[in-house]
Amino acid sequence: MGAADRNAEALAADLRQRLVERRRAEAAAGRASGDELEGAVTEIVDDHAAVLSEDRRARIRELILRDTVGLGPLEQVLADPAVTEVMVNGPDEVYVERGGWIEPTEIRFESDGALRDAIERILAPLGRRVDELSPMVDARLADGSRVNVVIPPLAVDGPALSIRRFAAARPGPDELVASGTLTAELRDLLAEAVRGRRSILISGGTGSGKTTLLNALSAYIGSKERVITIEDAAELRLRQPHVVRLESRPQSVEGRGEVTIRDLLRNALRMRPDRIVIGEVRGREALDLLTALNTGHDGALSTLHANSPADALRRLETLALMAGVGLPHEAIREQVRRGIELVVHLARSPRGERHVGELGQVVPAVGGVGVREVWRR
User: Strand 354-365 vs strand 342-348: parallel, antiparallel, or unpaired?
Assistant: First the structure.
């Protein structure tokens, strides 16, 4: 950031504070409209920066409005289509991810308060809020991006904000082959499996591309099938004509109104689905999924955090046991063996590249269930 830009930022911050103080002092009834705000910004810039050129005054007006009704300094990185994730670790540290690499930026907020203001402007249109009583929030923006916020006292060094962005159009199977995530051979194997209604679990770590692959594989679901998707934050962009999208809801500040993935899955079974697609299995809904897969609802697709196909099955067993219905471990393992047919495991290289490392078939094994390697990179 050059000296001219820093001077413009400083002047805009000073004039914005003057604007806030002036409007607080005014005896205005109700909330100012966008047009009134723009007029007030123009007036205060003309009053205090008349000696500057029109281009400079326009830039300062833009900065004031950005920090008043926009997302403040984050506007400039969110305008960059190459940025896939924004990570704010307090007012003085902002990182972005481009092309799978995390890199620092020169972006700074004036204070914790300025960062909190930006967070409030993100959450307000979503009907969500974050405060000392509810210091964490996870939500979905209008464009499908996911936003997560943690504030003090849980976030020790100031408010922490992350925004994971998703393109309006998700890459299809052929595009994943072109990018190196899949090979042509593996794409054809998975296409045959999806068309053949085999239940597939996609495993991997955070940011490995599980949801992207899940979305791509859904392209092989028949166009005449009724598909129900269940997610914490609706990220999938299925291309089938008959899709019902369900999204969970956290409890309110008063502790009411929560609708879990498990609730949605149970209800989805009453909605005459041909296919059930679960964005991620991470809790007690694992038992309901296994029950569905063992009672005629085949061809399901889902993701799960795990380090390998074998670990994915063990974690699925553990999550199902968390349902607390008293089923013996052996019964859960049998449901896993009969319900899940294939596990696709994704890995992310140190350079940020994402690729499928292994495809395994679920088979009986000594002590319960195992994975037979079908394909390995």
Answer: antiparallel
Contacts of 240 (CB under 8 A, 6+ apart): 218, 221, 222, 223, 225, 227
In one letter, which amino acid is 252? S
d(CA 15, CA 341): 63
- 255 dihedral zone (left: phi>0; alpha: psi -120 to 50; beta): left
pLDDT (tens digit per residue) in 242-280:
999 999 988 776 778 889 999 999 999 999 999 999 999
130 burial (CB, 10 Å; 0-12 / 13-18 / 19+) is buried
The residues spanned by each domain of the chain are 1-69, 72-167, 173-376
Look up residue 31 and give its two tokens: 């909330």
For the stretch 32-64, pLDDT in tens is: 444 465 677 787 787 777 778 888 888 787 776
Structure confidence at residue 368 (pLDDT): 81
| Domain 72-167 top-level CATH class | alpha beta
Whole-structure pTM value: 0.76
Fold of 173-376: Rossmann fold (3.40.50)
Q: Please give the Cα distance from 67 to 77 (Å, whole number).
A: 14
Confidence of residue 2 (pLDDT cuts 50, 70, 90): low
Beta strands 227-231 and 243-247 are: parallel
For the chain, the helix, strand and coil percentages under 3-state DSSP, each to the nearest 5: 40, 25, 40
Instruction: Name every residue whose Cβ is closer than 8 Å to that of residue 29 and which is 6 or more positions away in sequence.
Output: none
For 90, which DSSP code? S
